[in-house]
Amino acid sequence: MKFNNIGIVGLGLIGGSLALAIKSSGVSAAVTGFSRSPSTLDKAVRRGIVDRCCDKFEDGLHELDFLVVATPIGKIAGYLSRLKDSGRGGILVTDVASVKMPVVADASRILGDAGNFVGSHPLAGSEKRGIDSAREGLFRGRYVVITPDGNSKQENVDRIKSFWKSLGSIPVILAPDEHDRLIALTSHLPHLLAYSVMYSMLGFKDKKKLVACSGKGLLDTTRIAASDPGLWAEIFRLNRSELLYWVEEFERCFRELKSDLAEGSFDKLEDKLASAQKLRSRFDEERRYNEEDS
Ligand code: NAP
Predict the structure, then answer these.
(1) What is the rounded distance in angstroms from the CA atom of residue 153 to the CA atom of residue 170?
(2) pLDDT, tens digit, for every residue of 260-289?
């Protein structure tokens, strides 16, 4: 047992799934949940997702030796300030936010030298939200990016790494800026594109026919366009410049494909499709290898 009591603030898809994974892994003797809605806390206790809940954040902090902040990104700094003001700002803390530069900077500013914060971003999740979507195996075999900065203590980085490993995840260490640049390409751009595909279909008047003529290909490619717009607008806002960089790169590549199509250069188009297909296959092969290795 590595921890006595892990606190999780924000018991939605990620926070609730984390609580379930912690309980099944036995990495902590207890899990305490915090959330803004009494109905979420009630469900969390009734479904055995957490061992206990606290309505008021400050009331449960004295028992914790590790806190995970799993709220929407814009709420993280507020919780870190309240942690500091409660006198418990020195406990081990991580978060799960999808953008790291602003969160890591806020944590350094708020918790200062005495803080023990190291950021995390589990590359696990779905288009669903809320505690009803929480499931135990969400992080198993999935990559988690851990983002230490110049203020992070190595001992804390090692503890966070070993925490995620106990849940069956595969830790990857990146600097916060490298994370934001790379995740803008591998996650934020695909979300923007999935929303764009659906957005481009709004003009098609006969929606019933549209649905009837849509197969699994469309549903697979646009599954993530069913994600919470509020959460994603916030992510796009916070990682705007990195996302714009890749949007421009995407536009350049898309224009190349469009030109081949417009000019009838189908040999050239097929070559491009073949190199895209080869890269896509590599994702499946390497992920399988890493997951077996974890
Ligand atoms: P979610 O299912 O909507 O859960 C969010 C949780 O935060 C809920 O427990 C909610 O409380 C609470 N919350 C919402 N607004 C709040 C506020 N104003 N003050 C305090 N608590 C508030 O969202 P999620 O998908 O778990 O996302 C949470 C974090 O995980 C985000 O930082 C996101 O970037 C990150 N993340 C998400 C994914 C994904 O695929 N969804 C993947 C990796 C990382 P109530 O429900 O009790 O009201």
Answers:
(1) 20
(2) 999 999 999 999 999 999 999 999 888 776
Between the CA of 263 and the centroid of ligand 1 the distance, in Å, is: 47
Residue 218 half-sphere exposure toward CB, CA atoms < 13 A: 11
Helix residue ranges, H only, the chain: 13-25, 38-46, 57-60, 76-85, 101-111, 154-166, 176-183, 189-200, 207-212, 216-222, 229-238, 240-263, 266-293
Nearest CA to ligand 1 atom 33: 97
What are 235's two structure tokens? 């992510």
What pTM does this model have?
A: 0.94
The pLDDT value given to residue 286 = 86
**pLDDT over threshold 50, residue 96:** yes
Structure tokens at 144: 């988690």
